[in-house]
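Please produce the structure of this protein holding zinc ion.
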Amino acid sequence: MIPESFKLSLLQYGHPGPIIRRLKGQFDQQKMTHAIQLGEMACGCWVVLDGNNRIAMILRRDPDATIGALPEDRVLMLRDGEWDDDTLEWWNPNPQSFDFVQRHSAELYRARRNKSGFASSQEYEVEIARLTDRLTNMSHRCVANR
Ligand SMILES: [Zn+2]
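Below is the modeled complex.
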């Protein structure tokens, strides 16, 4: 359904906004209590419905990890129409790839750490608003996945 060589970084992050910064521990498939769920979007992209933090943890250690790195029997793939995409539309109308979200989350966190480096608090607030807006409101862009 998805080729084994498909990069995890091209999956769509299922949560709105930045990636949670302080994920503790590391991915351990022995301790996986439930499957990672992927949902096919109408456009053909795949969004992580359950398992966003686990995928982020894998990518933190290996940015080039592929779908093949996941235990096949612990991944549930739901085709378009087999899952409730209305909920996603309501909760996270502009899903972006992990690649995109990771890059822009890093920029947001960098700006937050560097608050004193801004000329004024107003300038800081404007920059934080700009970075947050990009993470939250930029329209979904499809990744090459076919
Ligand atoms: Zn798409």
